[in-house]
Structures are given as C-alpha cells and as structure tokens.
Amino acid sequence: MLELDSLSITYRITGGEVPAVRGVSLSVAAGEAVGLAGESGSGKSTIALSLLRLLPRTARLDGRILLDGDDVLAMKWGRLRAVRWSTASIVFQGAQHGLNPVRRVGEQIAEPLLVHKLASGAAAERRVRELLEQVGLPAWRARSYPHELSGGQRQRVMIAMALACSPRLIIADEPTTALDLMVQAQVLTLIRELIASHGISLLMISHDLSVLAEVCDRLAVMYAGRLVETGPSDSPFEHPYSRALSAAFPTVGDPASRLAPRGLAGDPPDPQSLPGGCAFHPRCPAVQETCSTTPIDLRPAGPDRQAACVLVEEKC
Ligand SMILES: Nc1ncnc2c1ncn2[C@@H]1O[C@H](COP(=O)(O)OP(=O)(O)OP(=O)(O)O)[C@@H](O)[C@H]1O
C-alpha cells in the first residue's frame, strides 16, 4: 500500500541545511498497521507530511514514495488532489488545532465528500451521521461547534473526517498525544477497531512505543532521521535505543506497569552536527569501540526483524 524507498528529506534554512530524514526505507502492506516511533526531532512528522506532499517548499526530497504503486513525488497536482483524502488521509497531531472553530463539525466532516464529489445535500448529511456513529458520537453532534466538544470528541471528529472518503491508508500523527490516559486508551481502541473492520492500512506515528504497540502489527523506530529498527510489535526489541525508548513509557491502561528506574540519558543530537558512526553512540548504554567511527545499516536481527547495531551483528 505504501512504500518508502531510500527517502531523504533536507530542509533549507538560512545559512545551511537540516537533514531531517536520512535514507528511510519502510513499507506498509494492505490492511497492515505500522507504528513509527522516535523522540522529538527524529523526523517522524517530516515523513508523515511528505507522504501527501504537504511539506514546505524549503524541503528537498530524494528517493521514492509509492502510494498504492503510484509515485507520489512524480504526481501531477490534479492526481495529488484526487489521492488526498480518498486513497490516503491524515489525522494530525492535536485535534484542537485541526478543526475550524467557526464551522459546525458536520460541515467539516462533509467537506472532503463535497470536494471529491462523493456525496452532496441529503446524502452527505446521511454519510456524516453514519461517520459520527462509527466513531462513537451521536449523530446530533454534527450541529456542534468544536468548542462544544471535549478533546477526545474532537479527535473522534478528526477520525470521522479521515474516514469520510473511505481511504485505503490512514496516516495518524500523534493522534492521542493531547488526550488524558483514559481517553487515549478509548481512542486507540476506536482506531484499532475501525482499521480492522474496514481493512484500512495504518501508519501511526508517536514518540510513545506503548501507544503504538496497542494498535500496530509492526513497529519502526527512528533516531536522528534514520531507521534503527523494524520488527513485529509482539517480539522484543534488539536495538539499545528501541529498548531504552520502550522502557521510557509505562504501558497504556496498565496501572501496574512502572517506568524504568533509569530513563534515556542525554538529548537527541542536532541534525546539523550529527555524531560520527552510529548517531546514538554518545547515549548508548552498550556502546562499543567501533560505534563512534563506523556507520551501521539495518541488518537481520531475528525473525522479520532488522536493527542497525553492531551488537546485533555479533548475535547473528
Ligand atoms: N520547516 C522546517 N524547517 C527547518 N527544519 C525543520 C522544519 N520542520 C522540521 N524541521 C527539523 O527537522 C527535524 C525533524 O523534525 P520533525 O518535526 O519531523 O520531528 P518529529 O520526530 O516529528 O518531532 P516531534 O515529535 O517533536 O513532532 C528537526 O530537527 C526539526 O527541527
């Protein structure tokens, strides 16, 4: 459904460049849910925005993005407009900011239907009511303004909007970050049920691996613009960064889970002055002599798992 092939994205800024994404290859099969994790600044949102060409003009992209076999970077404007919402749609970070405060939510959910000429008038109203019910809101909420809804309800509206044109892929960028833990768990359950019942593919982005593991079949972990690990969500991580990241969050909905006694020390590197070798080596609890000099690519690290770490090489 989605294939990223050696995708690199660099932002031009005054007096320099920011290499935000460096050679990422990743795929999402039809009906599959893939989670993309990493700390703030690792390049996750840059990837999300690139998938439907929503990046600013200062971004330079290399590599390929194939959406259902179509090369997104080569698409003409008309084709791109047709693909947005109908083949793939995005649920953005922070529901509060995604909705127009002066329009009723029903009108906003109907907008993609009208733009894509899929329904209008009474048929569009019927579809809006159906979508609201699918995301667990009563149909009369179509007449509400965003400020009359809670954060969780607004995020449900965003999900209804993303579903409106029956897309085959949903890209969800931190869909639950602004919500409290209980509402977060409800919205995650809703996403999981909707994608399973509609056979939709999902690329879900979060800094919180426990959130992704709730919903996704496969997880990919980014550090400083590169993928450091990919693998099934039900088998343990091999890369020291993925392990540290997963230990940094308690499990959603499991009050018995505890944070690791030692979090991940240090800060992610500035993309403009990345450390040599493996970019994670200055923070790595298992750092080896060669890590500061030898760059390392993804390599087999178990059944259907790849990790970019010398320790994995020693294990294999
Ligand atoms: N428009 C831009 N111009 C210049 N640099 C940018 C721009 N947008 C993002 N960046 C830089 O690109 C890098 C990746 O940012 P990005 O927002 O993709 O990371 P992220 O993993 O999504 O972080 P977060 O979880 O905080 O949203 C960061 O160093 C960021 O400062």
UniProtKB/TrEMBL annotation:
Protein name per its UniProtKB record: ABC transporter ATP-binding protein
Region annotation (Disordered) ranges: 258-277
Domain ABC transporter: 2-249
GO terms under biological process: peptide transport
A GO CC annotation given for this chain: plasma membrane
Signal peptide segment: none
Entries under Gene3D superfamilies matching the protein: P-loop containing nucleotide triphosphate hydrolases
Membrane topology: Peripheral membrane protein
Location relative to the cell: Cell membrane
Main location class: membrane
Keywords: ATP-binding, Cell membrane, Membrane, Nucleotide-binding, Transport
GO molecular function, one term: ATP hydrolysis activity
Domain of life: Bacteria
Xref: SMART domains: AAA
